[in-house]
Amino acid sequence: MSRPAIDVRALLVLVVQLGLTGWLGFLGATLPFDNRIERFAVHHGDQPREHEIFQRLFGHTDFFLVALDLGADPDEALTGRAETWFGTMAETPGVADWFSMARLPSGDQELDPEFVPFPFFQPSRGIYTALFQIEPGLAQGRVVTTFQRAAREAERDGLARRAVVAGEPVVNEALNRSSMEVKEVFFPILILWALVLLGFLFRDWKVLVVSGLSIGSSLACTTGIMAQAGSSMNLVTTLIPALVFVLSLAMQVHVLVSIGLKKSIEGGLRDKWWPNFLVSLTTSLGFGSLMTSSVAPISAMGGYMAIGIWIIFFWAHVTHLGLSKLLGLAVRPPSLSPLRNLQNLSWYQGLIASRWFLWIPVAVIGLGGWVLVRNPTESNGLNYFSPDHPIRVQTRFLQENVTGASHLELLVPLPEVVAGDEDKDEDGAVVMTAFLERQERLTELETRLVGLEDVHHVLSFNQFLNAPLRAEGMLVTDLEAEDRRALAEHLRDTRPELFTRFVQGSHYRLQLLVNSLDRERYGALASELKRLSPPDSLITGPLARIIEIQHYLLRSLSTSLSLTVAAVVLLLLLLFGRKARPWTLMIPNLFPLGCVALAMFLFEIKTSISTVMVFSIAFGIAVDDTVHLLNTFYRNDSEAFELRWRRTLEKDARAVFLTTLVLTLGFAVLMTSSFGPTRAFGLLLGVGMVFAFLGDLWFLPLLLGSPRLMGRSPEPD
């Protein structure tokens, strides 16, 4: 018996596909994670302007704290070992500067830790703390990881009972690791589980293999293009693989069912290329609207997804011209006869006949929008982690025993420094004069700031000036003007970097060490700072920037989602012509979004970047299914509504149900994550999938079957 001839063209298609997938997949796997504030920065508004002024005067200010618990009343030998350990860690590449008790400017006398403006050393508790300033750049994660590893070794070696590393760069690195966990652990499990489900439902391993290659090629090509363009992953763009997976699987299911119904690969592809083209067109337009955002990650996600949906469209069809032909794929879709025969059931006929049921989605959409507007936002990155997570535990230790885990920068103007004096002031005399003339008012301001709730310490040049005198019950303001100037100039000459750290040009810097706050508590603190500070003072720093950026991200994503909905509905109206009505496109597809909003309220899930993205994904998959149903429905325009809808269910109901089932069960895997945003993402997306299915099978026929809503004459009985 002769062997069947190999389809050379199909083999060539497969080889090219495997080559592209392997090459671009390798590039995509190397995408770095970068959740630094600068990645999300916007370039308009007060906060970016104030940060730009601060950066121009003082440079970057990213720092973290390391606290060693040496035990109560440690001896000099142990504190010496701790100081040596700090000095060794300060040599880590990426550390720009550091402060500890031994490095404080003390003049000719020894400083008493009790009177230092920051608790670098607490003898009674035995806690020794150092502050490390870190250089900006992707290397921050490596620096933090090095310190965390060294802290664990310090505990094992007996140097400290406990070693704590905390601060914004530490939280950012934890966010990076959690994002990596999603990419390297949960996402592969999700894909494998979904494909196994798909193969089981179709009862054919070939379906699993072909679907896996199609989805894998789409993921590899999209992330590979991102890598080629020099992009990185962050809390926003890390959702791109999930989006590609969802849309790719949905399109693949529709193609597979069509191939099974037509009993031909070519016939199935011909039948689905047009509705899949419509889906790709509307989805790419929707994601393209995100490119209007001035937040770089959102704009990048919109651009890459606009490209990615066409990559999905390409591989969803081309894979069948290669691997499917070589395997001799003969799809046998699940029967699901109860679903295909819904139109024959009296209870279903009653559901899609009573127009009063249309008040249900309208009410859910309205109530969901109302709830979402009032839903609290999550702007504190620490709350993304469970209470027993090491980041939360170490931050609590730091805030209970040392100081705040975050910080703000308050820049107070020194108006006595006239324009141009800075250029003549080679030794800082003019700036020093302006500072000393306002010292009493600055001392009063700093005293009030330390008394604010959530403010632990204020670091400033004035505080370090006062440190040697506090042991004698004095402040610099108690000295005569001549002695005050002599002390300030001595400190400036012995530690000039300290002077320039806090006084530059016409601004005096106050560094406030505060608790990690959410937006509401930060707003209250910022109001107090503005009330106490002189006019024209500037508030910036990592906490202020994080709060502002997250607020803008949420607002930008909400605006972009609105633009996406409007653009998709308008395009579909143009494509389907006068046959379609806006409400037939909006109500079934906005209904799952209302359900997601209500689920957030019921499960007490705060609005965050990841939860807002669920709305875009749920809307995208709902529109996908709606387009397929409408395309089939409008093909039989000459027939009565009941017959047209029956044929629509017979052809597309299985694909819609299978997509919903596989994605819902697949994303349920994410609910096992310890990372809050990932867990909420899986739960809410499952809710969105289920109610998108319900909206298409209940409310869509309700709308299509209403002569009044569709603008046509009633059909005869």
TrEMBL record:
UniProt key word Cell membrane: yes
Pfam families, per the entry: MMPL
Membrane-spanning ranges: 185-202, 207-227, 239-261, 273-292, 304-331, 352-373, 552-576, 583-603, 609-634, 655-675, 681-704
Entry's Gene Ontology cellular component terms: plasma membrane
SSD domain residues: 598-706
InterPro entries: MMPL_dom, Mycobact_MmpL, SSD
Top-level taxonomic group: Bacteria
Membrane topology, from the record: Multi-pass membrane protein
Keywords of this entry: Cell membrane, Membrane, Transmembrane, Transmembrane helix
Localization per record: Cell membrane
Record PANTHER family: BLR2997 PROTEIN, MEMBRANE PROTEIN MJ1562-RELATED
Protein name: MMPL family transporter
Lineage, uppermost ranks: Bacteria, Pseudomonadati, Acidobacteriota, Holophagae, Acanthopleuribacterales
